Amino acid sequence: MHKSVITVVGKDTVGIIAKVCTYLADRKINILDISQTIVQGFFNMMMIVDTSGMDTDFTSLSEGLDRLGKEIGVQIKCQKEEIFDMMHRI
Amino acid sequence: MINMNEVFETIDMVEKENLDVRTITMGISLLDCADSDVDALCGKIRSKILKYAGKLAATADDIAREFGVPIVNKRISITPISIVGASCCSSTADYLKIARTLDRTAAETGINFLGGFSAIVSKGMTASDRLLIESIPDVLAETGIICCSVNVGSTKTGINMDAVRLMGKTIKQTALRTADRDSFGCAKLVVLCNAPDDNPFMAGAFHGVTEADAIINVGVSGPGVVKYALEKVHGESFEVLCETVKKTAFKITRVGQMVAQEASRRLGVPFGIIDLSLAPTPAIGDSVADILQEMGLEKAGAPGTTAALALLNDQVKKGGVMASSYVGGLSGAFIPVSEDQGMIEAVECGALSIEKLEAMTCVCSVGLDMIAIPGDTPDSTISGIIADEAAIGMINQKTTAVRIIPVIGKNVGESVEFGGLLGHAPIMPVNRFGCEEFISRTGRIPAPIHSFKN
């Protein structure tokens, strides 16, 4: 399993989760966990996904999500999970 | 499993607090390139560097993209060239030829800087060492991304005062040779005492003879992250202050450790060390001086600065040591003037002098760094400044260094712009009393009594 963390931050609007999930499903990326909150009208979401079966490479995925974010009006980042594990777990 | 707050904390560190990996530096041994013909030597150097570091820049960019942490610099450090060149260099022109090869090859790999045009002369100088030092002004004037360093002393050997005298002259000549660029050459030249073999930071990086054939060393950054963390505990006790710095340093260093391991795996080169450093940049919010102010000083340089810096340096090490399997290099807070907006402001408002900076170098990682002084400062005064710093290093068994820029044609009250990571510097006044007679003495200062431990 290759875990990555996708974060979405921006102004709340209709269909953010739907669009991101569809984008991931189209590329055979499995979602393992989703957490989401809205703070003062701002949408914050974190997804943990498994990219081991994806039919694209990491660079294209991260550039594609960046473009999708611009279309929706939010910022989407995709990072490998190890950076968070290293920083917050001993 | 990782939670949302932790994920956003990491992202904020990168996006709002200037967390980055300052440098991935690949150390490459050039000892096996030695040849009695200088052209053959240059050919071997080129092949060896390209063999190991050809993919360094691209690999670092991939890692940065995949993990979402910027890697600001990709660098190479090499075996001190005075050792490699001793086999064939009989003139400064030969050394210049090697420097040009290094400059072209380094540019070909797409890295930012190459360090190791160096000589280690802490006790004495060979003819090759002397030729290399004499070639430095031309090398710095005629190459782009080569950094030079000379180690003039150590706790074990004492201080080579002949080298100190020669370096005062060399710095001045480098300033003159690059006078049309505000003496920029001197920003790529550092004089050290107790120089480490595995330093990833410029201008003092070289790949020591104690090292393996190739190695990956990583320098972390993150003054902005520490400053932001301290804002949250404003006015609290020293215990809370120290704990906060320690925890933050741990997190910053973990990022460096991860990047180092990943780069080592992908490039097939062993991991050497993490340099636990708070390296500032001229960017707003990426300043060591700002941390000192957040601790409660009106400006960096005010009474209390040395204590605050000592505390900061020690806590960064305590937090960082546990975060990494191998720690080395310079490891500590850097206090360059031109590369730190808070330091620049402190100098401009009169809070910070060269003398106070010298005191600060007793408790932090390096020395007098990126300080612009009047262009008419005598060679012997520059040597005197170097001798003072080297003495601090020798007696306190730590690395000290001088990277000072006598800006030709400029005086106190003016400033100089280097651009990029090197920033801008106000010209600082230097003590006007001379030390000519002291510096003119030949020979060396003996090793201190506490170096005899056998």
Describe this structure in words.
Chain A is of the alpha+beta class and 90 residues long. Chain A has a single domain (3-88), classed as ACT domain (Alpha-Beta Plaits, 2-Layer Sandwich), CATH 3.30.70. In chain A, 37% of the residues lie in helices and 39% in strands. Chain A has helices at residues 16-26, 58-72, 82-88; strands at residues 3-11, 30-39, 42-50, 74-80. The mean pLDDT of chain A is 93. Chain B has 454 residues and is α/β, with parallel strands linked by helices. Chain B has helices spanning 4-15, 38-53, 56-67, 81-85, 92-109, 127-142, 161-177, 223-231, 238-267, 288-295, 305-323, 341-348, 354-360, 379-396, 436-440, and strands at 21-28, 71-78, 113-120, 146-154, 158-160, 189-193, 214-220, 271-275, 277-278, 332-333, 368-374, 400-407, 415-417, 424-426, 444-445. In chain B, strands 1, 2, 3, 4, 5, 6, 7, 8, 11, 12 and 15 form an eleven-stranded mixed sheet that branches. Chain B has a two-stranded parallel sheet with strand order 9-10. In chain B, helix 8 (223-231) packs antiparallel against helix 9. Chain B is globular.
Using only C-alpha atoms, the radius of gyration of chain B works out to 21 Å
What percent strand of chain A? Answer: 35-45%
Q: Quote the beta fraction of chain B.
A: 15-25%
Silhouette of chain B:
globular
Detail the poorly predicted runs of chain A: none
Summarize the main sheet of chain B: 11 strands, mixed
Give me the number of helical elements of chain B. Answer: 15
